[in-house]
């Protein structure tokens, strides 16, 4: 019987000199496409999937993951802290203790119906990045905590087109660096929000944050359409005409603002400053 738990297995991987489990990329660097984690869903046969938003807003790429990894990703998206470090939280501490920084997660291939991934780390004292073979689900759970970018290959994008999926109700969704959740009556009252239909901003990075949007804002229009739920917000972003910015109208602190946000994928930074998030 194998008594190694996931944390022990990952610790063993890192402990083997950051190189024993390395492999080469399956494509050239210039073929990689940066994506952002949009939300989670369920595949047709019931398995969890993580939905990745491609730049220019047009496509969502579903990658099948395990239930434990789905729970870990959702905890990170909702900024839920646990009393003790869980596996992927622990690994952020391990990287820091070893003077390593996770800078990029790559989902680069599909072999025998299994997606393959790579962690890229910058390590103190090494001139070149260190690459470690990983399950994409673990890599993405680590990336969302560390601010590492996520990239996929054309092979992965093509394979994902054949995965049927459904979104989840009352889901947290990210697109354009804006994380939104459903607006409940209790939240509307607590935040003194207007009586308008929309979705609640729970975290914001990139151009929208630079334009002044903050957690607690209420998005009431996307390209002049009303988002009634988080998944609808994602769909409206995806429907943004090609080569144009998404137009976001939102209410914040008693005023209504309208901003234009590029549909490319913003470089991730900490999603919500400590103590400033909106708990859903």
Task: Give an overview in words.
The longest helix has 11 residues, at 67-77. The protein has two domains: 6-167, Bifunctional nuclease domain (Roll), CATH 3.10.690; 173-261, Pdz3 Domain, CATH 2.30.42.60. 40% of the residues are buried. It is α+β, with helices and mostly antiparallel strands and 280 residues long. The strands form two sheets. Strands 1, 2, 3, 4, 5, 6, 7 and 8 form an eight-stranded mixed β-sheet that branches. The radius of gyration is 19 Å and the shape is globular. The protein is built from eight helices and 14 strands. Helices cover 25% and strands 31% of the residues. It has helices spanning 6-15, 67-77, 87-97, 136-146, 154-160, 185-190, 206-210, 230-238, and strands at 33-43, 48-53, 60-64, 100-111, 114-123, 130-134, 149-152, 165-167, 173-175, 178-181, 199-204, 218-222, 246-252, 255-261. Helix 2 packs parallel to helix 4 (136-146). The model is unreliable at 1-5 and 270-280 (pLDDT under 50).
Please give a quick description of this structure:
The protein is of the alpha+beta class. It has helices spanning 6-15, 67-77, 87-97, 136-146, 154-160, 185-190, 206-210, 230-238; strands at residues 33-43, 48-53, 60-64, 100-111, 114-123, 130-134, 149-152, 165-167, 173-175, 178-181, 199-204, 218-222, 246-252, 255-261. 25% of the residues lie in helices and 31% in strands.
């Amino acid at each position: 019987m194998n008594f190694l738990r996931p944390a022990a297995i990952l610790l063993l991987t890192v402990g083997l000199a950051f190189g024993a489990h390395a492999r080469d990329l399956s494509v050239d660097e210039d073929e990689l496409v940066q994506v952002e984690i949009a939300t989670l869903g369920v595949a047709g046969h019931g398995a969890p999937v993580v939905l990745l938003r491609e730049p220019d807003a047009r496509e969502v790429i579903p990658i099948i993951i395990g239930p434990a990894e789905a729970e870990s990703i959702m905890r990170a998206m909702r900024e839920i802290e646990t009393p003790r470090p869980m596996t992927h939280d622990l690994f952020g501490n391990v990287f820091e203790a070893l003077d390593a920084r996770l800078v990029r997660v790559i989902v680069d291939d599909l072999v025998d119906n299994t997606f393959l991934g790579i962690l890229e780390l910058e390590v103190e004292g090494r001139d070149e990045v260190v690459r470690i073979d990983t399950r994409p689900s673990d890599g993405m759970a680590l990336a969302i905590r560390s601010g590492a970018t996520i990239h996929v290959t054309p092979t992965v994008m093509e394979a994902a087109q054949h995965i049927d999926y459904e979104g989840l109700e009352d889901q947290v969704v990210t697109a354009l660096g804006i994380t939104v959740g459903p607006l409940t009556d209790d939240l509307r009252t607590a935040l003194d929000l207007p009586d308008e239909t929309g979705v609640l901003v729970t975290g914001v990075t990139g151009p929208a944050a630079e334009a002044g949007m903050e957690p607690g804002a209420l998005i009431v229009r996307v390209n002049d359409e009303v988002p009634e739920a988080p998944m609808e917000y994602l769909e409206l972003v995806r429907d943004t005409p090609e080569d144009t910015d998404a137009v976001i109208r939102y209410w914040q602190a008693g005023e209504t603002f309208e901003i234009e946000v590029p549909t490319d994928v913003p470089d991730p930074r900490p999603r919500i400053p400590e103590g400033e998030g909106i708990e859903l």
